[in-house]
Each structure stands twice: as structure tokens, then as C-alpha cells.
Amino acid sequence: MDYLLALIKGAVGNEQLARLLFLGAIGLSAALAVVTVALLVMGLQDPVQRRLALIKRGHGDLSGDQRAPGNLQLLLEQVGQRFAKEDRSQVSATRTLLMHAGYRSASAVQLYWAIRLVLPLTLLGLALLVLPLLPKLSLTLALLLAAGAAGVGWLAPAIYVEKRKAARINRLRAAFPDALDLMVVCVESGLALPQAIERVADEMAVSQVELAEELALVNVEIRAGIPSAQALKGLALRTGLDDVQGLVSLLAQSIRFGTSIADTLRIYAEEFRDRRTQAAEEQAAKVGTKLVFPLIFCLWPSFFLVAIGPAIIGVFKAFGKL
């Protein structure tokens, strides 16, 4: 407390005004904390508000296998609704990003923005609690540390989602040629495209879970009455792979003009595998360039120290410098 009072006094230059500001900040924080806790308890305990929240997120009829979301999740969704745009006519960039990262739930955008709002405030509060324990800390450095904590809380969810998106796209890109090969076998054996997609999804449910889920979702959409071309476009949108968009265009043309789907899949599988091989060769060719920096900063100083160090010491001894 004395530390914070000293910081405020150093900022305003008046001890009486600093005490008033300090007491006012404490009173305002206590009032806001009481109001927040009261609203939280009332909102979570009110069955009407909880039921409305469940209906909004698609859990209006909860039964057997469906599990209701927890109070914390509902609270985060309500907070995130203040920042997420409810534009149903077009898919937002945030929803597309989360979809590519594997988060396809209706409340994913709300939870994402809620976490990006709550986490900076939480880290900022923890920083304000820890700063008084650090001795001889200037006001400028304290403000920088608090701002850094808030910045880390704001950027950490976005970085995590981006990393998850990149890893998921890489896994899907690696698994797609094998899925196309299995689809070719199924189509040539006499299965239609929806049945072939279903069989491939079942076969890859163990080795490639994410791709199997995407293919199963395509099959569910086709069974629900959505045209095959539109369901495949949805697959390209959810996966975020440019190569899948080309495959969707070829399959749409094959379905429209009645050409052989098996030949289309076989040719595209070969091209997909060639592109994957070229990407692997490109990554391998970059290894030599990437090794230059570890060699310069880690290996070569030690090598020069061991190889030239004794000679330099001998020279200094010969000239009487040591």
C-alpha cells in the first residue's frame, strides 16, 4: 500500500491529493468488485437467464448425450457477445481463423473474444499485485511491466490459435493424398462419391482423426440434402487448403458434365503428392541456410577459442604481455 501511495505521490506531486486519489481508487475498485460479483451470481443462478443463454447457443433441448455448458463458459460467451459481430450473411475473419484451427462450435467466436478480453485484465491485476513486492522500482518501469503483462494477455490467445491453425493445416495437407488414393479405390469398386467419402472417413478415423471428421461432415451435409459441390466447397472452406479448392472445382466439373470421378481423383492425387514432395524438398533445401546462424553464433566461437586461443596465449607470453 505504501509503495502504491508513493508512486501516486510521485506522479501528482501532492501528498494530500495522492491520498485522496488512492482512497478513491480503492473505493471504486471495491464497489466495482461487489457489483461484478453480484451480477455474476444473479446471472448464473437465474434459471430464466441460463435457459435463454442455452437456447441462444443451440442447447434448447438438452437430452441424454448432450452435456450443458458450464457457468464459466456461459459467462465468457456473454462477455464475448459484446465484441463479436452477429453477421450471419458472411463468415467473419475471426470465425474463419477459428474454423481453420479446428474450433467449429457456434460460440467459438464469443469465447475467443471473451478470453482475449479477460486474460489481459487478469494478468494486469496479477502484475499490480506483484509490483509492490519488487523493491526500488520506478514508476515508468512499473507502467511498462503492467502494459507488457496486458499485451501478453491480449496477444497470447491469437498466437496460440495461429500456431494451432498452421499445425492443423500441415496435418491435413500430409494426410490428403492418402485419402484421395482410398477414395479412388472406393470409386473404382463401384461406390458413389458420398459412399466413398463415408468409407474413407471410417478407414482414416484412427490414423487421421481431423481429416476423417471433415470428410464425415461432408457426408452428413450431402445426406441432409446439400448438393455435393456445395458440401465440398464447405470442406475447402473449413480446411483452409488451396489444393482442396482446386479439387473441389474439378469434382464439381466432373459431377456437372458426367466425366469419370475416379480419373479426376487419381490425377489430382498424383499432383497433390508431387506438390507435397516438392514442398518437402524445398524445406530440405532451406536447412543449409538455416544452419548458418547456429554455426556462426554457437559452434565457430568455440572452435576459434580452442584452435587459436593457445597460439594467442603463446604470443602474449613470448612478448611478455602475461
State the low-pLDDT regions, or none: 59-66
Q: What is the SS-derived class?
A: mainly alpha
Strand content: under 5%
Helix content: over 70%
Gap from first CA to last CA: 56 Å
What tags apply to this protein structure?
322 residues; mainly alpha; 79% helix
Description:
The protein is an all-alpha fold and 322 residues long. Among the domains are: 1-49 and 81-136, no CATH class; 168-275. The protein is built from 13 helices and no strands. The chain has helices spanning 2-12, 15-45, 47-56, 71-80, 93-101, 108-130, 139-188, 193-203, 209-223, 228-239, 242-257, 261-290, 292-318. α1 (2-12) packs across α2 (15-45) and α6 (108-130) runs antiparallel to α7. Mean pLDDT is 77; it is low at 59-66. It holds the Pfam family T2SSF. It comes from Pseudomonas cavernae. Residues 180-307 form the Type II secretion system protein GspF domain. Its main location: membrane. InterPro entries: T2SS_GspF_dom (IPR018076).
Brief rundown of the structure:
The chain has helices spanning 2-12, 15-45, 47-56, 71-80, 93-101, 108-130, 139-188, 193-203, 209-223, 228-239, 242-257, 261-290, 292-318. By secondary structure, it is mainly alpha-helical.
Task: Tell me the layout of helices and strands.
Layout: H1 2-12, H2 15-45, H3 47-56, H4 71-80, H5 93-101, H6 108-130, H7 139-188, H8 193-203, H9 209-223, H10 228-239, H11 242-257, H12 261-290, H13 292-318
